[in-house]
Amino acid sequence: MKRKQGWSLTELLVALAIIAVLLALLLPVLWTAQRTSNRAVCLSHLRQLVQAVTAYTNDYDERFPMGFYAERDRAGLRCTHTIWDAIEPYQKSSAIVRCPAESSPTDLTRLAVYRPVGIPPCSNEPRYVALLPNWCLFTNNLRLPHAQTVSLAMLPFPSLTAMWSDARLSSSDGNQFDPISPIDPRHGHHIRVPPIVRIGDESRYHGIVQAAFVDGHARAFQARVLPDYYSRGDFIEVVARIQDIMGQPIPHWRIQGGAYHNQPSFHGWVERAHPRVNNRYVYRCYPREIWMCDEWE
Predict the structure, then answer these.
(1) Residue range 32-73, pLDDT digits in tens
(2) pLDDT class of 293 with cuts at 50, 70, 90
(3) Which residue among 44, 48, 60, 237 is buried most deeply as judged by most CB within 10 Å?
């Protein structure tokens, strides 16, 4: 009788070791390829959002749509319209408001219970969004009902002024809804920072944030995270993180490079450059009671 040949325990262990080594080599490559693909998709979506807004302005005397405003629905109940609904007719796909790299996008239905708003979005609004606009270009009629919409002619540097970016929706005012969108650098390595970033540990976290500008181009920026507290002599100053409308605390990220260098968000339009300091500009917003113009010291 012939004896069947099988694998010895040593051969099996060697085969498993080879498979483990191959997986260890391939998984980082696949992960990097996935991140690169997600970045490309998000960048394409950002460009398409700019194109949709540009098409809107062509139909409305070169004026940007409002970011938020309330009206009555067919049942007579108040609901919130947003920028996403305003540009919906100009979009090729509703998917462009999302980014595959964002695992927890902003849920706009939270506006119904978000204390400074308390008005649900209208039925035709998208539920989830992950790419947010520069709120200084899109007036907030909920906060300032008499503010005029922004026109393209008001922007002296369209190629330097951001329109859409990777960000998360929050508010700078807990009593009256004043939308802000701190950057969310979701495309880099090691971007999920812990609840507290200690002094000296901030260099461990790296992020990449993407933005599209009024002239239509889009690009990526490096982002750096700031520590959550500082030692000042005998004092330790704790910097509280703000929360988005989902109730999630937002780490203190800063943009690196471009006109918005060292800013926490792509907010405001570039008015003029500092005559002596590189990457420092005055940013303007539509006329309102707070933060209209950030002058130099």
Answers:
(1) 666 777 889 999 999 999 999 999 999 999 999 999 999 887
(2) low
(3) 48
Q: Which amino acid is at 56?
A: Y
Query: Cβ distance 260 to 210 under 8 Å?
Result: no
| Structure tokens that stand for 259 in this block | 């006109």
CA dist 64 and 134 (Å) reads 11
The rounded distance, in Å, linking the Cα atoms of 144 and 69 is 10
Q: In 3D, which of 44, 40, 87 has the Cα closest to residue 212?
A: 44
